[in-house]
Amino acid sequence: MNNDEKYMRMCFALAKRGKGLVEPNPLVGCVVLDKYGNVVSKGYHKKYGGNHAERNTLLKLKNNEAEGGTLYVNLEPCSHFGKTPPCVDLIIERKPARVVVGMKDVNPLVDGISKLKAAGIKVDFVLTKEAEYLNRVFIKNMTQKLPYVVLKTAVTMDGKIAASTGNSKWITSDEAREEVYRMRKEFDCIMTSSNTVIADNPKMEHRFKCILDKDLRTQESSQIYRQGEIYIASKKNTPLKDGQLDLRVVLRDLYKKGICSVFVECGGTLAGALLKEGLIDEIYQFIAPKILNDNNGLSCFNGDNVSKISDCKQLEIQEFKKIGADILIKACLKNYKNKL
Ligand SMILES: NC(=O)c1ccc[n+]([C@@H]2O[C@H](COP(=O)([O-])OP(=O)(O)OC[C@H]3O[C@@H](n4cnc5c(N)ncnc54)[C@H](OP(=O)(O)O)[C@@H]3O)[C@@H](O)[C@H]2O)c1
Questions:
Q1: Confidence band of 338 (pLDDT split at 50, 70, 90)
Q2: 34 CB under 6 A from ligand 1?
Q3: What CATH superfamily is the domain 3-134?
Q4: CA angle, 135 as apex, 82 and 303 as ends, to 5°?
Q5: Cβ–Cβ < 8 Å for 134, 27
C-alpha cells in the first residue's frame, strides 16, 4: 500500500464516524500532511448541516502547517455555497501543494477540482472505486432520486430460502441472524411483503417499515405491526404495473418521505421482481453450509425463464466474511454506478 492509499484509507475510517449523523449528506473524512510528510490534522463531517470534513480539519491548525503539504479527502471539495461556505476556497487559502481526492462529487453544483487546479494545486485521485462504495447511498440518492436498495437473503448451498412447505427457520446460524439485526440499523427502512409477513410472522424491529400488500391481506395482529412506523403500499396508494404494485413508484414514494436506504427481506417472488426491474443495488447473501436437495424448495429469486448463462445479472463482490458457520457475501449490481 503506497502513502496515498494509506492516507485515503484513513479518510474512509474517519468518514465512517459520521454514519447515522450526516445523512443525506455524504460520509467524508480528511487528513492533512505538512510539507515534510507528517500528519498535522485529521477531521470528518460530523453532522448534517455542520462543517464539512475539510473545514473541520483545516480549522484545527494554528499555524499554516498545510502550506506546501498534502490534503487528503475522499470526496471532491465543494465549490458552492450550501449550508456552509465552499471548502475549496479555504483549501486554496491554506496553500497545500497537492490535494488527493477519492471520487468526484456527483452533485452537479460541485466543481472543486477545476478550482484547485486553476489555483495551481496539483490534484490526484486514489482508491476511487472504494470511495464510491463508501458513498454508494449518497450517489444513488443524488443521481436517481431513489433510495439505495439492499436485498438480504439467507440461502442453503443449493440456493433455497425455504422448504416446499414454506418452512424457513432457521437456515443460518445465531451469529448470522444477530448480524442481520445489526445491519438493519444501518438502513432508514426495512421492506417486506405480505407473503413473508403471512408465512413467517416476523417482528423485524425497526423505526420504519414498508410492507408491500396490494390487497391488504396481512393481519393487524401480526408481530410486525407491534412496533415502529409502518407504511403499507397497497393498491389504494400505489399504481399497479402488470397487475402488481409498481415497485419503482413505491421506492420513489419512500424517497419523498426522506428514506435514503432500504433493506429488503422477502422471498423469491418479490426478490425476482425487484431484480427484473433493476431496482436492487446490492445483495447481502448469507450462505449456510447446508443442502436442502428439494426440487420444490423455494428459490432465492423467482424470475423469468432464462435460457442462457450470458443473460445472468452480473454482480461485483465487495466483501465476504465468515459469520458463525455461514458466509456473508456483499455484491453490487451496477445500477448505481451507471449514472456516473
Ligand atoms: N431465507 C430468507 O432470506 C427469507 C426471507 C424472507 C422470506 N423467506 C421465505 O420466503 C417465502 C415467501 O416467499 P414468496 O416468494 O412467496 O413471497 P415474497 O417474495 O416475500 O413476496 C411476494 C409478494 O410480494 C408482493 N409484491 C408486491 N409488489 C410485487 C411485485 N411488483 N412483484 C411481485 N410481488 C410483489 C405480492 O403480494 P401482494 O399481491 O399481496 O402485494 C407478492 O405475492 C416464505 O416461505 C418465507 O419464509 C425467506
A1: very low
A2: no
A3: Cytidine Deaminase, domain 2 (3.40.140.10)
A4: 130
A5: yes
Please measure the distance between the N-terminal and C-terminal CA atoms of the chain and give it in whole angstroms. Answer: 27
Instruction: Check: CB of residue 78 under 8 Å from CB of residue 110.
Output: yes
What is the rounded CA–CA span in Å between residue 94 and residue 66?
6
Confidence at 339, pLDDT banded by 50, 70, 90: very low
CATH of domain 142-338: 3.40.430.10
Average pLDDT over all residues of the chain: 94
Ligand 1 binding pocket includes 119 (Cβ within 6 Å)? no
- Our mutation pick for probing the ligand 1 site, out of 181, 224, 270, counting the most ligand atoms within 8 A of Cβ, is 270
| pLDDT of 109 | 82
Cα 199 to averaged position of ligand 1 atoms, centre (Å): 9
Q: Is the pTM above the cut of 0.85? A: yes
- What percentage of the chain's residues is helix, strand, coil (to nearest 5)? 30, 25, 45
Do 57 and 42 form a contact (C-beta atoms < 8 A)? yes
Q: Please tell me which residue in 5, 23, 54, 205 is annotated as part of the active site.
A: 54
Question: Which among 167, 236, 269, 284 is the best mutation to test ligand 1's pocket, defined by most ligand atoms within 8 Å of the CB?
Answer: 269
Please report where in the chains the cell 445489526 appears, as a residue: 182
Q: What is 218-272 written as a DSSP string?
A: S-TTSGGGGSSEEEEE-TTTS-EETTEE-HHHHHHHHHHTT--EEEEE--HHHHH
Catalytic status, residue 54? yes
What residues does each domain of the chain span? 3-134, 142-338
Instruction: Take residue 312 and report the three cell numbers written for it.
Output: 445472468
Place of cell 454482480: 315
pLDDT tens by residue, 132-162? 999 999 999 999 999 999 999 999 999 999 9
